């Protein structure tokens, strides 16, 4: 089961997806809310935290979560504060009951990762793409529009056209034809 523990938070935060199963994982921790109590209420304990990238809205509660559950945080760059273990491009990680391939997708931030499970037909897209063809900002430090376009195209090539769910860093998850939303983002990112 995948649930957004940041749902209905009124402060600025990213989504934070709790995935329970064989390996209960929190994908991004969000910020400006009590993520620890929400995890405790939902599942009681965690096995790991995985971060899509280290912008403050995605990792604001990272230290509190890792300390409360005595777990490690996994992300692309272990030199970033709070990231304990590096995940290399193309590495396979278990989230819940499924294996996900990590895709290094810079453009929004240099350490950005997406996670795709072919068997589950699910993509965790972080801030790369969103509902209705929106895409990650490139006006922040480390933002690069050309790199973002390459990353979106890489994800488009990697995922199946029958992608079932796309869980994004902000806004609602996409459960109706998410592949189309990625296609739209690829087109929209090219328009200046």
Automatic annotation (TrEMBL):
Key word Cell cycle present: no
Pfam families per the UniProt record, alphabetical: Lactamase_B (PF00753)
A single GO molecular function term of this UniProt record: metal ion binding
Alphabetical list of InterPro entries matching this protein: MBL_Glyoxalase_II, Metallo-B-lactamas, RibonucZ/Hydroxyglut_hydro
Record flagged with keyword Disulfide bond: no
Names of the cofactor(s): Zn(2+)
Keyword entries, A-Z: Hydrolase, Metal-binding, Zinc
Cross-referenced Gene3D superfamilies: Ribonuclease Z/Hydroxyacylglutathione hydrolase-like (3.60.15.10)
Record-annotated membrane-spanning stretches: none
Top-rank taxon, per record: Archaea
Domain Metallo-beta-lactamase, first and last residues per copy: 13-170
Protein name, entry field: Beta-lactamase domain protein
Source organism of this protein record: Haladaptatus paucihalophilus DX253
């Amino acid at each position: 089961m995948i649930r957004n523990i940041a749902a209905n938070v009124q402060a600025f935060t990213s989504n934070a997806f709790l995935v329970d199963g064989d390996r209960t994982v929190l994908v991004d921790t969000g910020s400006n809310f009590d993520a620890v109590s929400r995890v405790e209420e939902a599942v009681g304990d965690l096995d790991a935290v995985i971060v899509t990238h280290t912008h403050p809205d995605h990792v604001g509660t990272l230290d509190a979560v890792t300390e409360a559950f005595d777990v490690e945080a996994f992300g692309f760059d272990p030199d970033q504060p709070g990231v304990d273990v590096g995940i290399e491009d193309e590495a396979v990680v278990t989230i819940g009951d499924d294996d996900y391939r990590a895709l290094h997708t810079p453009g929004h931030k240099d350490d950005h990762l997406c996670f795709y499970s072919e068997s589950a037909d699910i993509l965790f897209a972080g801030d790369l793409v969103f509902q209705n063809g929106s895409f990650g900002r490139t006006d922040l430090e480390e933002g690069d529009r050309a790199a973002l376009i390459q990353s979106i195209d890489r994800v488009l090539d990697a995922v199946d056209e029958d992608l079932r769910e796309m869980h994004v860093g902000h806004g609602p998850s996409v459960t109706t034809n998410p592949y189309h939303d990625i296609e739209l983002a690829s087109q929209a990112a090219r328009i200046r």
